[in-house]
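User: Please fill in residues for this 311-position structure.
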């Protein structure tokens, strides 16, 4: 109605404005094209190629015989391979021992930084925590070789101060495993600390001050007040660190090359040996796909039992 006069209804609805941001011809779509091609080239294509190779007999040393389709033979051979299960067991042991230590030390550092009243100290600590995370895996492995060297390593020097005899860290199976653990804890405990510190900053200050007046025990405050704010970050830590440990290759290969013997031959190192030393790309692809499935299952379990509790 306009100026008191009713307008005739011709049965047509007014045209709605078209959303230009979602049209294929819009500038936003063309800006996404490089990211889509990069994701397809780096992530999707290698995954599809590995899945294709896992169902074929693909041996680099015998390409003359072709790459016949062999169904699930590579997967059956992998699941019945004792060396595969041995490497997976060492990886699981490394994950189950190292990850809780990193979370515990990270939580301790986060609580200390959260309780400090010195802004400059907190800022300096945050910058210092970023340094190990910014170090590449290969450099961490080289640093580990220097620290645990028998002749001039810092580890034997510190042990000598306490009267310990020099140890050949990288030649002993147990000590080599522990050495890799120490370097991984040094590199990724700061990551856990920063994530958990971010969760602690989400706790309302009024509720935290009231809780400290109610009880002086920090364990009760941590469990009843701060724990719900830490669980989402803890879920992210568990997912990311578990995935990193399952595919950890650079630091181990640079530091010990999987030795001595098979003491530090984790699953990623074993897959590399099968694919590029035994030249069996089909078997290595099947093992990589199984490792991917295991990573997805672990992530779903973390979300189901840790993140759901936070929600």
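Assistant: Residues filled in for all 311 positions:
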């Amino acid at each position: 109605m306009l100026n008191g006069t009713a307008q005739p209804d011709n049965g047509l609805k007014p045209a709605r404005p078209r959303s230009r941001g979602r049209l294929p011809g819009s500038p936003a779509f063309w800006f996404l094209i490089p990211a889509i091609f990069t994701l397809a080239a780096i992530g999707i294509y290698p995954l599809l190629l590995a899945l294709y190779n896992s169902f074929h007999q693909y041996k680099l040393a015998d390409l003359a015989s072709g790459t016949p389709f062999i169904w699930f033979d590579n997967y059956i051979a992998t699941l019945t391979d004792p060396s595969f299960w041995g490497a997976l067991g060492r990886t699981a042991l490394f994950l189950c021992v190292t990850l809780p230590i990193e979370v515990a030390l990270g939580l301790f550092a986060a609580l200390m930084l959260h309780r400090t009243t010195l802004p400059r100290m907190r800022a300096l600590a945050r910058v210092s925590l970023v340094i190990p995370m910014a170090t590449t895996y290969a450099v961490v492995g080289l640093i580990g070789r220097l620290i645990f060297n028998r002749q001039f390593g810092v580890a034997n020097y510190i042990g000598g101060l306490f009267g310990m005899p020099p140890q050949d860290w990288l030649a002993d199976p147990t000590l080599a495993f522990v050495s890799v653990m120490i370097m991984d804890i040094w590199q990724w405990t700061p990551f856990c600390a920063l994530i958990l510190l971010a969760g602690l900053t989400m706790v309302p200050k009024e509720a935290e001050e009231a809780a400290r007046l109610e009880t002086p025990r920090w364990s009760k405050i941590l469990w009843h007040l701060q724990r719900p704010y830490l669980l989402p970050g803890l879920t992210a830590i568990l997912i990311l660190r578990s995935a990193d440990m399952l595919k950890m290759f650079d630091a181990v290969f640079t530091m010990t090359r999987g030795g001595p013997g098979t003491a530090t031959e984790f699953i990623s190192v074993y897959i590399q040996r099968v694919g590029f030393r035994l030249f069996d790309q089909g078997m290595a692809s099947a093992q990589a796909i199984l490792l991917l499935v295991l990573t997805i299952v672990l992530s779903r379990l973390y979300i189901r039992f840790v993140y759901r509790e936070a929600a």
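For context: The chain is about 70% helix and 0% strand.
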